[in-house]
Every structure is written in C-alpha cells, then in structure tokens.
Amino acid sequence: MATKGKGVEFYLHDGIALVKVANLQTATPPQGTRETIDVTNHDSAGDAREFMAGLLDNGEGSCTIDHNPGDASDLLVQEAFTSGDLLAFEFRLNTPAGGKRAIAGTGIITAYSPGEVAIDDKMSASLSIKASGIITMSAVV
C-alpha cells in the first residue's frame, strides 16, 4: 500500500524550539551512505577484495517552499543559512496508519535559494541541509 505525501512537514530549530517551516512544496530527507575500507591483504582468499564498514555520511536533505519574502519561515531559513550554525531539524513523514514518523538530526543549512520570479506563477525557494552526526527515526507523539 502506498502512503500519500500531502501533509509531510519540515521543522528547523530557531534556538529555542523546533519550528515548522510553512508552505512546504517538496521534501527530500537526507540520504545516507556508508564508506567502505579495503582490507584486502596477501592472506585474503582467492582473487577477491575484502572490505569492512567505514563511516556513515548521513547526506543532505532538501525542501522547496512557497517563497514569501520576509515571512517567519523565510527569516528562519535565512538566519540559519547566514549563521552557519549546527541546528536540529526534523522531516515528519506520513505513515500508512495515519500518524507521522520523524527523521531527525542536526545539520547545517548549506543553500537557500529563492527561485525565478515569473509574472504568472508563485514564488518558490529551495533549501538544503547537510546532516552532521547521527540521524534518528521515531514515531511522532
């Protein structure tokens, strides 16, 4: 069974609490990868390389929002981008049972880009957040 995307949320810490970034259009949670370390040596069996797990890189997440210059979400993301501070974030995804599941961690806003302004379309902006450290997944209560 598929789960609908409408209703997904993105939160960013403002120094006091997690604050919902309003007017979310699209959201892509961080996509992690794990490095591998080549441990092949002369005693390795056959002609096959051997590997062990290396460090996790929890990747980068992104969002597209309706851009309303000067509104609370615009100012929150601008401040986070300008400061370069490590901030808590959460992507809250829908579950088949109707609840939410949080993908949470800390990260740095690495991009905040208002999009093209067209005469006959709404304004939008995109943001990227680079995860730093561990990502957790849990039910939202």
Structural account:
It contains one helix and nine strands; from the N terminus they run E-E-E-E-E-E-H-E-E-E. The protein is mainly beta. It has a single domain, classed as Factor Xa Inhibitor (Irregular), CATH 4.10.410. The radius of gyration is 19 Å and the shape is elongated.
- Mean of pLDDT: 94
**Care to count the β-strands?**
9
Number of helices: 1
The CATH topology corresponds to Factor Xa Inhibitor
Order of helices and strands: EEEEEEHEEE
Sequence of strands across the biggest β-sheet? 2-1-7-8-9-6-3
> What's the CATH architecture?
Irregular
Poorly predicted sequence stretches spanning 5 or more consecutive residues: none
Radius of gyration: 19 Å
Number of domains: 1
What are the salient characteristics of this protein?
141 residues, mainly beta, Factor Xa Inhibitor, 7-stranded antiparallel β-sheet, two-stranded antiparallel ribbon, 1 helix, 9 strands, elongated
Task: Itemize the secondary structure elements and their pairings.
Blueprint: E1 9-13, E2 18-20, E3 24-28, E4 33-38, E5 51-57, E6 60-66, H1 72-83, E7 87-94, E8 100-114, E9 124-139
Antiparallel strand pairs: 1-2, 1-7, 3-6, 4-5, 6-9, 7-8, 8-9
